[in-house]
Amino acid sequence: MLKRSVPPKEQRVNFYQEMLTGGLVPRLLEPTKSRFPRSALEQRASTYTPFSDWHLHLDAMDVFALAQRSTPGQNEDLVRIAAARLKCVLHQQWNVATGTVYSAFSSDLSLDLPEMTEQEKIDCQSVLNRFSPPMFETVLSFPPRPRFDSVVEAAEFTPWHVHKTLLALAGDVGLLRADRLQAWALAMASATFLLASHVVLDLNSPPSLHHFSADHVFLRALEELLFRVELDGGETLDLLDAIRKMGRFSWTPLSLDKLFEARSVYGDQMLRHGIPAATVEALLINRYEVTPSTFRPASA
Q1: In terms of C-beta density within 10 A (0-12 exposed, 13-18 middle, 19 or more buried), how is residue 15 classed?
Q2: What is the pLDDT of residues 39-57, one digit of tens each?
Q3: pLDDT tens, 54-112?
Q4: What number of CA atoms fall less than 13 Å from residue 32's CA on the CB side?
Q5: Are 229 and 278 in contact (CB under 8 A)?
Q6: Got the DSSP string for the chain?
Q7: How far is CA 126 from CA 85, 102, 108, 111, 112, in A?
Q8: pLDDT less than 50: residues of the chain
């Protein structure tokens, strides 16, 4: 669990109770006497905020599970409303311009200090304290922000495509380490479940209404990267290259290393909660087959 997700002692009963019995889907499924049930669902969703990143992830899994069980027309509004709300939360947290999640992360300097020699630490402190006022303590607590080489590379995606925002962050490999890497990996997994929820609804619609979009390729790439137990490195790299081009992400070979590292980090987080990778894979994989070569840009 991410360190910022651990609640104060007096709040832990509600924290864990919410994890076991609460969440967005149960809240939306509560009976309503409203004459306009969709409006009631939207109102409930708009006021919902997960207790933590872990709660948000469980919410995303709930939404996907409900989408899987739905038949055409059944629970579709609920799934779309719930997924949209959770995407908005992720966007509020991770968007490049004003994302709230970054202020909770360890500063660059706090992560760099343990790797310095004693002399390097002394020199660093001396240099920063030459300023007036002294800057060492300020820089030590200064939260990180995503960095890109140009404004063009800092693409700002909408909440609907928050998975693209998270993928674009792989272009800033210096950001993605320690607690930031853990949070990013979990957020990408949550975004994948939410993306899968929409794709499932599309696949559950009448065949005449099926449409193939870039979302299918993004979903396939994220599933292969994060959830496939027996990873096919070549196929995964092909899919990542396909979505890199679609999203115009400014990735480097180090970015690909970070993406594969996210796979391990996410798997470790789930296993610490008693959920093996095979269980998550069984939820998502093998619903359909999409390869990079099947993507038709004209139909996106």
Answers
A1: middle
A2: 888 999 999 999 999 999 9
A3: 999 999 999 998 888 876 667 888 999 999 999 999 999 999 888 999 999 999 999 99
A4: 16
A5: yes
A6: --GGGPPPGGGHHHHHHHHHH-SHHHHHHS----S-HHHHHHHHHHT---SSHHHHHHHHHHHHHHHHHPPTTSSHHHHHHHHHHHHHHHHHHH-TTT-SGGGGSPPHHHHHGGGS-HHHHHHHHHHHTTSSS--HHHHHTPPP----SSTTTS----GGGHHHHHHHGGG-TTTSSHHHHHHHHHHHHHHHHHHHHHHHHHHHS-GGG----HHHHHHHHHHHHHT-SS--HHHHHHHHHHHHHHHT----HHHHHHHHHHHHHHHHHHHHTT--HHHHHHHHTTS----GGG--GGG-
A7: 47, 27, 17, 18, 16
A8: 1-6, 9-10, 150-153, 208, 286, 288-300
Q: Which of 148, 149, 129, 147 is nearest to 139 (CA)?
A: 129
Nearest to 276 by CA among 263, 267, 284: 267
Residue in the block written with tokens 């005449």: 208
Q: How far is 82 from 64, CA to CA, in rounded Å? A: 10
d(CA 52, CA 63): 17
* Cα separation, 227 vs 219, whole angstroms: 11
The token pair that represents 115 in the structure block: 């790797």
108 neighbors 102 (Cβ within 8 angstroms): no
Burial of 248 (0-12, 13-18, 19+ CB in 10 A): exposed
